Amino acid sequence: MEILNLEAAPRPKVGTRQAEKDRKIGRVPAAVYGHKEATVSVTVPRDAFKAIIKTGTRLVKLSLGGKQELTYIREVEYHPITDEMLHIDFGRTSMTEKLSVKVALKIKGIAKGVVSGEGQMDILMVQIPIRCLPDRIPKNLEYDVTALDIGHVVKLKDLHLPAGIEIDGNVELLAITCHKAIEELVATPDAVAAAAAAEPEVLTTKKPEGEAGAEGAAAPAAAPAKGGA
Predict the structure, then answer these.
(1) Which of 52, 79, 199, 205 has its CA 20 to 30 A from that of 215?
(2) What is the pTM of this model?
(3) What dotted CATH number matches 3-93?
(4) Which CATH architecture best describes the domain 101-180?
(5) CA end-to-end span of the chain
(6) Is the backbone of residue 45 left (phi > 0), alpha (psi -120 to 50) or beta?
(7) Residue 123: CB partners within 8 Å, gap ≥ 6?
(8) How confident is the prediction along the chain (229 residues), in pLDDT tens digits per residue?
(9) DSSP code of 185?
């Protein structure tokens, strides 16, 4: 993997307001940490960093105050709505140190189960956790799903990894599945009318006034006796 250079500047003031000021002038707040050294707050030029991201590399030789450090891009935080770059984490590393990183899963082809018109393919993991030396980090991991039929699954252990790369974590986790598509039932006006017609009709009859029902009717009062016994 290519190593690209990037100039960083010290960030003596931190906080939300300062971060907004930095972004307005085209700089992204960042942190550099690792190797049991103190975490350093810096800013980097947004456009230069975007150019690095486009190349697909994760290795950056960061220059700060005349000193250069080999780092890798650990994480980039974006605004959930505007997609603005908010913050970057750089981790210190060396060419002989294995790294735990995540790389994108790139799907190739169309699953057999989907082609048949009966299946649906779900990608459960878009970022794959791997462990390798810095110069072995791939831009992405490609997997051909052409043979994937209904009922088939792809676990992390099934992915084709380049030499020197291993899954970082549970290899039994599902990455891709193909299952029978569930048809979505949409209620049309005709279907609603048909359903209503199929329901049993409940009839109620109003009883004539003064007529007591069979249940709960009051017994007539006994007529008073005339004369003595």
Answers:
(1) 199
(2) 0.71
(3) 2.40.240.10
(4) Beta Complex (2.170)
(5) 123
(6) beta
(7) 105, 107, 175, 176
(8) 789 999 999 998 889 999 999 999 999 999 999 988 999 999 999 999 999 999 989 999 999 988 999 999 999 999 999 999 999 999 999 999 999 999 999 999 999 999 999 999 999 999 999 999 998 999 999 999 999 999 999 999 999 999 999 999 999 999 999 999 886 545 556 655 655 555 554 444 444 455 444 444 444 444 444 444 3
(9) P
Q: What is the DSSP letter of 12?
A: -
CB 144 within 8 A of CB 108: yes
Q: Which of 183, 184, 182, 179 is nearest to 111 (CA)?
A: 179
Per domain, the residue ranges of the chain are 3-93, 101-180
88 burial level (CB within 10 Å; 0-12, 13-18, 19+): buried
